[in-house]
Structures are given as structure tokens and as C-alpha cells.
Write a sequence for this structure.
């Protein structure tokens, strides 16, 4: 499947080349690392993530302590007391999982904060790329940041620095 995709890409690029179409590429990781607002947002997200992770670990620690105490006292407890403790442990564990999910799931607090902080920067990068594409008549601009299918890229066609210049960065 990957070979078919690669062949299709090569054929498509060949067709564009025959029609004298211009193409270029960018490295979005390189561009984003050069933007202070992006780096600041990444730092904020990392700090928030660590804070949430610490809270999650504390909640699971409470669950483990309750469970360990229950196990050590289990033989001394009445059936009613055992059920009460088991219910308490299950409830605490469920609360810990819900807390973790509310912050780390794709719809969680961290994902929403990531969207809030990073989307404006990503939109500015996209708009700069779009302007360059329009001004210089590029048919296609690829992003090679995380593309394992790119075997070789000629630096001559790298537009990353041009995008940064368009955005006012060097």
C-alpha cells in the first residue's frame, strides 16, 4: 500500500513538473520552533500537563492506600464493613479515572487548552504559506515535518524560512 502511495505521489509530481507547475515544501516543526508564541504555549501546556498528572497520581495513590489497608484488615472486618470498604475503593478509583479522562482525553481540558493556545499560531503559519503560494504561484506546498514517505528533499525548494519572514520572524 505504501509503495502504491509513493508511486502515485511520484507520478503526480511528474505530471505537475511536465506542466511547469511550481512546488515547494516546508518543515512545520522548524517553523513553529522559531516562533516565540508557540514555544511559550508549549511551555504552558507542559506545565499544565504536569500539574494534572500530579493530581491524577495523587488520586491513584489514595486508591492504592485504601486498597492496601483494606487487604491488611480484610480478615477482621464483617461482611457489611468489607462491602462498604470495597464500594469506597471502587468509587475512589472511578473518580480518579474520570478526573484523568476529563483532563487527558481528546475532548479533555488539556486538548481544549492546546487548541486555544496553538490554533492562532498555526493559523498564522497557514495564512503565510497560503500567501506565498498565491504570490509565487506554487501548485503544491508539502509539509515534510513528520512525513516518513519523503526520501530526499532539495533545500532549494524549502520555503520554511520564507514563511518565517512572511510572518515577521528571522
Amino acid at each position: 500500500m505504501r509503495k502504491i502511495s509513493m508511486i502515485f505521489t511520484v507520478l503526480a509530481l511528474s505530471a505537475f513538473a511536465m506542466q511547469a507547475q511550481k512546488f515547494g515544501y516546508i518543515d512545520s516543526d522548524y517553523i513553529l520552533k522559531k516562533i516565540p508564541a508557540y514555544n511559550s504555549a508549549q511551555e504552558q501546556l507542559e506545565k499544565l500537563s504536569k500539574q494534572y498528572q500530579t493530581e491524577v497520581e495523587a488520586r491513584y495513590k489514595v486508591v492504592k492506600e485504601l486498597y492496601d489497608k483494606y487487604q491488611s484488615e480484610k480478615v477482621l472486618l464483617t461482611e457489611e464493613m468489607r462491602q462498604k470498604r470495597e464500594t469506597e475503593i471502587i468509587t475512589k478509583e472511578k473518580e480518579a479515572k474520570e478526573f484523568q479522562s476529563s483532563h487527558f482525553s481528546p475532548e479533555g481540558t488539556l486538548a481544549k487548552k492546546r487548541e486555544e493556545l496553538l490554533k492562532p499560531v498555526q493559523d498564522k503559519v497557514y495564512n503565510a504559506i497560503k500567501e506565498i503560494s498565491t504570490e509565487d504561484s506554487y501548485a503544491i506546498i508539502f509539509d515534510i515535518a513528520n512525513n516518513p514517505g519523503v526520501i530526499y528533499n532539495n533545500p532549494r525548494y524549502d520555503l520554511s524560512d520564507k514563511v518565517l519572514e512572511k510572518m515577521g520572524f528571522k
Q: What stands out?
A: The radius of gyration is 26 Å. DSSP finds six helices and two strands in the chain.
